[in-house]
Specification:
Blueprint: E1 13-15, E2 29-31, H1 32-37, E3 40-48, E4 52-61, E5 64-76, H2 82-94, E6 104-110, E7 113-119, H3 135-154, E8 157-158, E9 167-170, E10 175-178, E11 185-186, H4 188-204, H5 209-231, H6 244-247, H7 256-271, E12 282-287, E13 290-295, H8 297-305, H9 307-316, H10 334-337, H11 345-354, H12 365-369, H13 375-401
Antiparallel strand pairs: 1-2, 3-4, 4-5, 5-7, 6-7, 8-11, 9-10, 12-13
Helix pairs in contact: 2-5, 3-7, 4-5, 7-11, 8-9
Organism: Paramecium octaurelia
Pfam families: Pkinase
EC number: 2.7.11.1
């Protein structure tokens, strides 16, 4: 006699252990049925912040776990505006299929919650390796990060929240992906050039696949921009990784904000200090006919770059600044405070050009990728490729001999 296995299904809440504090989201249980109905099973929580929580999940095939299919599922909190979520999804569509980018797999909406499913990327938390990396390992990390930012620039996007927590890195593979596009923005000049390209191409081949693809992208850029306009431009990401122009809400911001963040990460590696610029907080004090922002971390900047440079750049950003007379006027020499093996002139030059207070003089991502600092890495990769090709030729010769 067969047993009756047709049990009535009920919604079940499963407790998931959080990996960080719960001040954003007190309810740490999940509705397992929501995931199962969409062919996913949650394994554990990967992380959470002010905007949402991310779970690791595996795929289900006819109710059976498929361990080869691993995903990261992001669920935004109800406090996050729909516009922010829509913009992030739009960005994920724009970067789909690109190297060093998260790969969007699926979207589903349940009870006013949007679930964003991307391919799982195996990584190690930054805090577990940053203080142990040698200079060659630092090179690989930064090179991968710059490659990701270059992909974004080639697609008219600047991230605006670059930090270790948003760059998932696998030290063993030497690969990384840049995640979390909730605060990203679009380079309008890039879209304008894309529109001009579409006009030129459509004169000869208005229905070609290339023209159709460009039109699709333009429509997506326009839809994303509409949501960004509703939210407001020049949003603040993680303050301790933001350059001065972002902290002071200067209107003219672009790809350079991300390059400053790369410099902060570089400095974390070099000093083996996790919390840099930890006093970044803004206090708005009304003064007659303009606002005066006193930013605590300006003192930290002045201790590195000197009061003269900081005052000069604040004037450029049209903000008043008062610094104590005890603050040093001249910048420090990086080699006087950085003592890691391999910190040579090339490393110092790259750090200085990344952590440049003037955004117009800050190094561009394409120049960063060709900087002499990465020459040893590129030579190593070239040698590896040469060895691989030599081995392939030897194998081919042996096959022909046999």
């Amino acid at each position: 006699m067969k047993k009756n296995n047709n049990k009535k299904t009920t919604n079940t809440k499963v407790k998931v252990n959080p990996c960080s504090n719960d001040r954003y989201y007190m309810d740490q249980s999940i509705d397992e049925e929501v995931y199962i109905k969409n062919n996913y099973k949650v394994v554990r929580e990967l992380g959470r912040g002010g905007y949402g929580v991310v779970y690791k999940a595996v795929g289900l095939n006819q109710g059976q776990i498929d361990k080869n299919k691993k995903y990261a599922i992001k669920v935004n909190f109800s406090t996050v505006s729909p516009e922010l979520i829509f913009a992030e999804i739009g960005f994920l569509k724009l970067i789909y299929g690109k190297e060093n980018m998260p790969q969007l797999v699926n979207l589903f909406l349940i009870d006013q919650k949007i679930y964003i499913v991307i391919e799982y990327f195996t990584y190690k938390p930054f805090i577990t390796f940053f203080a142990t990396f040698d200079m060659m390992e630092i090179r690989r990390y930064l090179y991968e990060l710059l490659k990701a930012l270059n992909v974004l620039k080639q697609n008219g996007i600047y991230h605006r929240d670059v930090k270790p927590g948003n760059f998932l890195y696998n030290p063993k593979a030497g690969k990384g992906i840049l995640i979390d596009y909730g605060l990203s923005e679009i380079d309008r000049s890039f879209v304008a050039k894309l529109i001009e390209k579409e006009k030129e191409l459509s004169k000869k081949h208005p229905q070609s696949d290339e023209v159709q693809e460009i039109r699709r992208k333009i429509n997506l850029y326009n839809e994303i921009q509409k949501t960004i306009d509703q939210i407001g431009n020049n949003k603040i990401g993680t303050e301790s990784f933001m350059p001065l122009e972002s902290i002071l809400h200067y209107q003219d911001q672009s790809y350079e904000v991300d390059m400053w963040a790369v410099g902060v990460i570089f400095l974390q590696f070099l000093t083996k200090k996790y919390n840099l610029f930890s006093n970044v907080r803004m206090i708005n004090k009304p003064v007659v006919n303009k606002n005066f922002f006193y930013v605590n971390f300006i003192l930290e900047l002045a201790s590195l770059f000197g009061s003269e440079q900081v005052k000069q750049i604040c004037e450029q950003f049209e903000y008043d600044l008062k610094l104590p007379s005890v603050v040093a006027t001249k910048p420090v020499q990086w080699k006087s405070i950085i003592h890691i093996d391999g910190f040579d002139n090339d490393a110092e030059d790259l750090l200085s050009r990344l952590l440049c207070l003037n955004p117009k003089q800050r190094i561009k991502v394409e120049d960063g990728l060709t900087h002499p600092f990465f020459k040893p890495l590129l030579e190593q990769e070239k040698q590896t490729q040469t060895n691989f090709q030599d081995n392939q030729e030897i194998m081919q010769q042996k096959l022909q001999e046999n």
